[in-house]
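Researcher: I'd like a candidate sequence for this fold, 300 residues long. If you have to choose between options at a position, lean toward the conservative one.
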């Protein structure tokens, strides 16, 4: 973006320049980054960028866009720059206090819907219309589920007050705040052992320490470490949740967990050894990775 340029930059010209600049600087997804940041700058959709490809940028728009380009070049994720991320075709507010929702996590949402939608095998007592998410972060999972399952009330637990603030704002934005009770707590510590949930859902930190050390800069240096790092083997939080969940699950209720690539056999083994679960399933994401473990609490 040369300062001596006489004519104004058009949308298409600035997109081409920025994409090349990001590519030269090693920025991941250079074209997508350029499109999302420019669309955010102009307050339009990505499609509109191409419908208005010859529209010139005003000096004020160009100045704002330059700031975004510098932040992205430094490694800051696009979602934190724009403050938004799409998940389950819904728009979510995100801040550096929360993990950025990933497409593969939609596998967890679908896995829960398969067993909680009306018409499935779930019992219909009133007490069973209550489910729990542990580690809500931005609220993307619990809110997507609340919108899809209007008959279910939810409890969402997270240890981070700033994350809970983001989740509450997102729940209000999507019209489900009345059916979600957010609670600060460490795993299940804030809940008394009492079988009352028809499902427990969790996307807990699961990145093993060796993998953490090799993560890209835009993840390792910008996203919250406590939302990613799961200890030496990635199971520091998953292991105690698997052990404690039967104490709050109704008989034949479900536990659904997102796990790291290659972790499914270890989590399955934890469930089998506990003797508390049956119908243990490994569910692949859109890339074929065994991303979700779903299991049912035994009746006795």
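Model: Candidate sequence:
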């Amino acid at each position: 973006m040369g300062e001596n340029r006489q004519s104004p930059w058009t949308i298409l010209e600035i997109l081409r320049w920025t994409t090349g600049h990001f590519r030269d600087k090693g920025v991941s997804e250079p074209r997508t980054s350029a499109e999302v940041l420019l669309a955010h700058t102009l307050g339009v959709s990505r499609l509109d960028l191409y419908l208005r490809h010859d529209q010139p940028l005003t000096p004020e728009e160009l100045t704002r866009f330059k700031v975004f380009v510098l932040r992205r070049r430094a490694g800051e994720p696009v979602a934190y720059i724009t403050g938004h991320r799409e998940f389950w075709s819904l728009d979510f507010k995100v801040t550096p206090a929360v993990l950025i929702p990933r497409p593969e996590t939609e596998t967890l949402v679908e896995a829960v819907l398969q067993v909680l939608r009306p018409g499935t095998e779930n019992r219909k007592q009133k007490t069973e219309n209550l489910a729990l998410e542990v580690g809500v972060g931005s609220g993307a999972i619990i809110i997507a589920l609340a919108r899809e399952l209007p008959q279910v009330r939810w409890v969402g637990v997270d240890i981070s007050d700033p994350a809970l603030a983001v989740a509450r704002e997102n729940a209000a934005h999507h019209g489900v705040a009345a059916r979600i009770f957010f609670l600060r707590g460490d795993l299940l510590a804030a809940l008394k052992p009492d079988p009352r949930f028809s499902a427990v859902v969790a996307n807990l930190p699961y990145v093993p320490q060796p993998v953490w050390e090799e993560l890209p800069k835009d993840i390792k240096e910008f996203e919250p470490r406590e939302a990613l790092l799961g200890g030496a083997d990635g199971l520091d939080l998953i292991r105690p949740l698997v052990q404690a969940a039967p104490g709050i699950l109704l008989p034949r209720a479900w536990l659904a967990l997102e796990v790291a690539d290659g972790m499914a056999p270890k989590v399955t083994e934890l469930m089998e050894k506990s003797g508390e679960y049956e119908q243990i399933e490994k569910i692949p994401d859109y890339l074929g990775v065994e991303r979700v473990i779903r299991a049912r609490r035994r009746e006795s």
